[in-house]
Amino acid sequence: MIKRFSSLFAGHIDLGDMGTDATPANERRYSDEQLAGIFGKTEALAKCMDKLGYHTLWFAEHHFQHEGYEVIPNIPMLAVHLSHITEKLNYGCGFNITPMWHPLRLAEDFAVADHLTNGRCIFGVGRGYHTREVETLGGALIDKDANREQFEEQVEILFKAFHSESFSHKGKYYTLPPDVPYRGYDLKELTLVPRPKNLPVECWQPVVSATDRGLDFMMKYGIKGIIGGGSALLLNSSISKFHEAHLRAGKESQPGTGLCLGISFHIAETKEKAIEEARPFYEEHAKMFGPLGFLGKLTDDQVEAISRRGGIPDSGIPTLEWACDNGAWYCGPSEGFVDFLHTLNEKFPGLEDVNVQSAMGTPEKVMIEQLEIFGKEVMPKMRMAEAAD
């Protein structure tokens, strides 16, 4: 049964114009002052969510995005700051893209954040999907096999570093420690200093392709999964496959166990009004993520249409109405959202975590309004249902 409500914020600034008739994604460029304004926006979201009793504010790690869509490069550092201006809200790494890190530097940064936030920074790992970011920072992405191999070895190192008083590792990409003399002896082991305050480390990872190999790897390390908003095409399949992976690993499970489900939403008096208000935000989301594969497999003509001004309506990509009908979005009144969540409870009895999130491009004012409506009109009713259960 759903117990915790959180939100994912990928890190977009207030873009100004939005939607299919607005500035094309690749033509957006903002000043450093505008891009750095993201930190004031995260403060406003964190304070709002902390006051309303949300569980976690998840962020995404991204780099070099002068277009203003995803502009938070270091989640643990941001989590430390936000924990000092809030009381209870957790901050999720959704996700640290490990191929862009040395795994031991990532382990150290998270361990420091775990201490300085008193356990309010939640760890997460991902493989990445922006070639500009991953390949620039030394990881593989175009070579999918190398990306997977590097990621899996890095996660193995991270878990060794977190959970062992001392460790060593020899693999395809890393030999740790290197075979060198040190202060009169030959170096054989390393110790992470500091190790995280809270052990074992809770870790999350996105569930996208949901291959048996990827899911079995998650089971091996006890990694939980997040299915992001916009994954309606894969929703039922991914949850079923995640459940099956639990069973293969000999773990007790119900459909939804160990998962967090992301739902993009917009609340208004009617479904029609909510769709009308949210359409430019949905279209901006499509402009950003469609060419990256997040709207399903698109043709070259569809990608071209999304990339130019006014090209979305006749491109044949999934519409916001379709997204609502297929469960990737909820648009409508708050009482309808309660019913929608009760349906999820019945369909996925193991599901305990839900992210409700605004689409890429949604202005700060609207995001705050939507979080307040959900926090005041939906969350209390869901908690009453949980208490009754």
> Number of DSSP helices?
13
Helix-strand pattern: EHHEHEEHEHHEEEEEHEHEHHHEHEH
**Regions with pLDDT < 50 over 5+ consecutive residues?**
none
Count of domain modules: 1
Give the CATH architecture. Alpha-Beta Barrel
β-strand percent reads 5-15%
Name the average pLDDT.
94
Structural class: alpha/beta
- Distance between termini? 9 Å
Strand order of the largest sheet: 1-2-3-5-10-11-12-14
* Full CATH superfamily name: Luciferase-like domain
State the total count of DSSP E strands: 14
Main sheet record: 8 strands, parallel, barrel
How much helicity do the residues have? 40-55%
Return the CATH topology: TIM Barrel
State the CATH class.
Answer: Alpha Beta
Radius of gyration: 21 Å
Shape category: globular
Please give a structural write-up:
With about 400 residues, this protein is of the alpha/beta class. It has a single domain (about 5-95, about 205-389), classed as Alpha-Beta Barrel (TIM Barrel). About 40% of the residues lie in helices and about 15% in strands. Strands 1-2-3-5-10-11-12-14 form an eight-stranded parallel beta barrel, surrounded by six helices. The protein has a two-stranded antiparallel sheet with strand order 6-7. A two-stranded antiparallel sheet has the order 8-9. It is globular.
Q: How are the SSEs placed, and which strands pair?
A:
Layout: E1 4-9, H1 32-36, H2 38-52, E2 56-59, H3 75-83, E3 90-93, E4 96-97, H4 103-116, E5 121-126, H5 131-134, H6 144-163, E6 169-170, E7 175-176, E8 181-182, E9 185-186, E10 203-206, H7 212-221, E11 224-227, H8 235-248, E12 259-267, H9 271-289, H10 300-306, H11 320-325, E13 329-332, H12 334-347, E14 353-357, H13 364-388
Parallel strand pairs: 1-2, 1-14, 2-3, 3-5, 4-5, 5-10, 10-11, 11-12, 12-13, 12-14
Antiparallel strand pairs: 6-7, 8-9
Helix pairs in contact: 2-13, 3-4, 4-6, 7-8, 12-13
